[in-house]
Design a protein that fits this description.
Elements: E1 8-14, E2 16-17, E3 23-28, E4 31-35, E5 40-41, E6 51-54, H1 57-60, E7 66-70, H2 76-79, H3 82-89, E8 93-95, H4 97-109, E9 118-120, E10 126-129, E11 132-138, E12 147-153, E13 156-160, H5 178-187, E14 191-195, H6 208-220, E15 226-229, H7 235-247, E16 251-255, H8 257-268, H9 281-286, E17 292-296, H10 306-311, E18 324-327, H11 336-348, E19 352-354, H12 369-379, E20 383-387, E21 389-390, H13 391-403, E22 408-409, E23 416-421, E24 426-430, E25 435-439, E26 442-445, H14 449-460, E27 462-469, E28 480-484, H15 492-509, H16 514-533, E29 538-545
Parallel strand pairs: 2-21, 4-7, 7-8, 8-9, 13-14, 14-20, 15-17, 15-18, 16-17, 18-19, 20-22, 27-29
Antiparallel strand pairs: 1-3, 1-23, 3-4, 5-6, 6-25, 10-11, 11-12, 12-13, 23-24, 25-26, 27-28
Helix pairs in contact: 4-8, 5-12, 6-7, 15-16
């Protein structure tokens, strides 16, 4: 059993070797704290599943030594797993007001508001958890109250950045200044655990303030309706869009539950108070085309989001020729096909689309190389531990940090325990990590029996066989077969007839043991299907005794 002794350990259970699902553990003097508890979104490898959760087995087995979960900010890949996993850990949560408001809404939806302790930390505030002192350091990002954490231990200080960027003119909040960060560096920083998302970008991420002009130019030039899609949580972009709507004399209509939620929490915590009053879907459609701007979710191609429903004409908002959709967001790798599907549907309706490739309508919320170099300069860490990136990002971040004069750096991935002090960084072991799926309302192993069977169903189809047999193991009546997803098409009837014969023949040869009888029928029918199609469908056999 791994128990941190007189040392400082770091262990990622998610977010290292991948982008998303951030879960990080720090351990010292027998105790652990968790930083963030996020999700990632499923891809076609998980049919029927939308949300992937981290496997927390390691810390669940040590929950008596876990002191709390400290949240850096309110993005789903940092807080999204809380309503599904936090109650089982049984420890308090700590977050600044805006993030806490988002978490409270999630807990309330799951009926857990009274079961999970949620503590609000003031902006720039501090807390102590056992041997850990934690101070919140506000940084710029695309959501209010993004924070780095200054984690103080007997073995030194760690700055855990969370998601961040440098913004000379932030639209929401006041980030920690260069001077304040330099003062922290002058006092000594053992390790910088840092966002790696944009490490390949040579140009700075850019200020949110610059996006306003680009969006204004594009929106002002349109004669029809304008729909802007962006991440719902990008409150800074919502602030910008409110200004753009006023500047172009357009009313605002919001489409998407997550946008409604963000606006509600933002206003309750003192943000977006000057965002224009919104109009309903019906009012939006009744207004002259050039007097409305719609802000909608779904820019990453999500099938149930507002933009997809609008694109496929199953929403109260309708778009047609002369209308324009602006994608004010970056295409996340893996979402290209889903986004392309929506763009093609819009094109079919003669709706114009504009992305960051055509106009300056988006800036990233993550640090590029110049910003990373600046952070190294201010904090002067003894070592860099790259996180929040795929393997290629982590290795490039390590190389870049060393080139910039950081004395030491080490690439770790999920499950690898790293001793930061003393004599770090050094890998000391491997622990079990993995993925869970949220399948409907049930949490399952991502590579368990259910998902493996569903993949087989998706790839090969299913055949159901029903055979009636008497006590003497003789077939009675006709064998019945139903199939789904087996590629026989116009040969369906002929195939079913042959498969029924194969099942009856196998039943006659495998009397006695029920399991052997069922397996014999299953193999005979699958063999028949393979001969006809080259596929190996799942075959489910029901034996009815008469």
């Amino acid at each position: 059993m791994t128990k941190p002794g007189n040392e400082l350990l770091f262990l990622a259970l998610g977010g290292s070797g991948e982008i998303g699902m951030n879960v990080n553990l720090y351990g010292t003097q027998g105790k652990w704290i968790m930083v963030d508890l996020g999700i990632t979104f499923a891809d076609p490898e998980y049919p029927g599943v939308e949300v992937i959760l981290p496997d927390l087995s390691f810390i669940e087995e040590r929950r008596k030594d876990l002191l709390g979960i400290v949240l850096t900010h309110g993005h789903e890949d940092h807080i999204g797993a809380i309503p599904y996993l936090a109650a089982d850990l049984g420890v308090p949560l700590y977050a600044t007001p805006f993030t806490a408001g988002l978490i409270a809404g999630k807990l309330e939806e799951e009926g857990l508001l009274g079961e999970v302790e949620l503590n609000i930390v003031d902006l720039g505030g501090s807390l102590h958890l056992g041997p850990f002192g934690i101070r919140y350091l506000p940084l710029a990002h695309s959501i209010p109250e993004a924070n780095a954490l200054l984690i103080e231990t007997a073995h030194g200080k760690v700055v855990h950045t969370g998601d961040w960027k440098l913004d000379a003119a932030p639209q929401i909040g006041r980030p920690t200044s260069d001077e304040e960060l330099s003062a922290i560096g002058d006092a000594g920083v053992l390790a910088l655990v840092c966002d790696s998302t944009n490490v390949f970008n040579a140009e700075p991420s850019g200020s949110e303030a610059t996006v306003r002009g680009g969006l204004e130019d594009v929106v002002a030039a349109q004669k029809g309706r304008v729909l802007v899609t962006t991440f719902a949580s990008n409150a800074a972009r919502l602030h910008t869009l409110g200004k753009v709507a006023r500047a172009t004399n357009r009313k605002v209509c919001v489409a998407g539950r997550s946008l409604d939620r963000i606006l509600k929490v933002a206003r309750a915590t003192g943000y977006l108070l000057d965002f224009p009053e919104t109009v309903s879907f019906e009012e939006a459609m009744a207004l002259p085309k050039r007097e409305i701007m719609i802000v909608a979710t779904g820019g990453q191609g999500e099938s149930r989001a507002a933009l997809a429903r609008i694109a496929f004409d199953s929403h109260k908002i309708k778009l047609d020729a002369e209308d324009t959709v602006i994608f004010s967001s970056k295409q996340i790798p893996g979402n290209e096909l889903a986004i392309g599907r929506i763009m093609n549907a819009l094109a079919k309706a003669d709706v114009k689309t504009v992305t960051e490739r055509q106009a300056h309508v988006h800036v990233s919320g993550h640090p590029a190389r110049p910003e990373l170099a600046a952070m190294y300069h201010w904090l002067k860490p003894e070592m860099l531990i790259p996180v929040h990136g795929e393997t290629r990002h982590l290795h490039e971040h390590r190389r870049f940090a060393l080139e910039q004069g950081v004395p030491k750096s080490m690439v770790q991935e999920n499950g690898e325990i790293v001793r930061l002090a003393p004599n770090g960084p050094a890998k000391t072991g491997d622990e079990r990590v993995g993925r869970l799926i949220l399948d409907g309302d049930v949490i399952l192993a991502a590579d368990g029996a259910t998902m493996n069977q569903r993949r087989k169903l998706a790839a090969n189809g299913i055949i159901s066989v029903a055979v009636a047999m008497d006590r003497s193991n003789r077939v009675q009546g006709e064998v019945r077969i139903a199939l789904e997803g087996v590629p026989v098409e116009e040969d369906r009837d002929a195939f079913i007839a042959e498969a029924c014969d194969a099942a009856a023949g196998a039943a006659g040869k495998n009397g006695g043991n029920e399991d052997k009888l069922r397996e014999g029928i299953r193999l005979a029918v699958r063999r028949c299907a393979t001969e006809w199609t080259g596929k190996k469908p799942i075959v489910d056999v029901l034996i009815v005794r008469v």
